[in-house]
Amino acid sequence: MVLFTGTISNSVLGLSIGLAIGGLANGAGITTSLIALISNAQPADQAIATACSYLFRSLGSVLGLSILSAIIQQQLRVRLNVALGSGADAEEIVRNVRESLDYIRGLDSQVARVVRDAYGESIRDGFGVVCGLVACAGVASFWLREVRVGK
Question: How large is the angle between the packed helices 88-99 and 109-140, nearest 10 degrees?
């Protein structure tokens, strides 16, 4: 998915396919882990185990999205300040663009292109962070021990 955000190509189709594959893998992983969790919990503890699973999944989603959004917004601000320079107009553009994407429509075409490029690079950085976290999770999974499902 990261490759189609400008690393090797800008492709909406490639990005869409990557998002679909990622969503399918995420759904399969969540379902598999929930089934494994329930099957390894005692009947009296299954409700608690399920609730904890949903709690940590929701908490992880909220924290992950918040952290990623902060990274993207910070990178966008830095890139726009570098690209647009300093001054009252530049600060106003940076502030308004970070608040709403609709503001880009009212900008000069050359400035709008700079802003769109900065957005693309910032989002690519966010995807890079996600790829790094996925790699860390993949490495950590090597130390998981297998437990037979079934009783």
Answer: 50
Q: What per-residue confidence (pLDDT) applies to 74?
A: 92
Q: Which two tokens stand for residue 101?
A: 């994407």
- Cβ atoms within 10 Å of 95's Cβ, excluding its own: 12
- Looking at beta carbons, which pairs linking 69-76 to residues 24 or more positions away fall under 8 Å? 71/125, 71/126, 71/129, 72/122, 72/123, 72/125, 72/126, 73/98, 73/122, 75/121, 75/122, 75/125, 75/126, 76/118, 76/119, 76/122
DSSP state for residue 142 in the 8-state scheme: G
End-to-end CA distance of the chain: 40
Taking the model in full, what pTM does it have?
0.75
Q: pLDDT tens digit string along 14-63?
A: 878 888 988 898 888 888 888 888 888 888 999 999 999 999 989 988 99
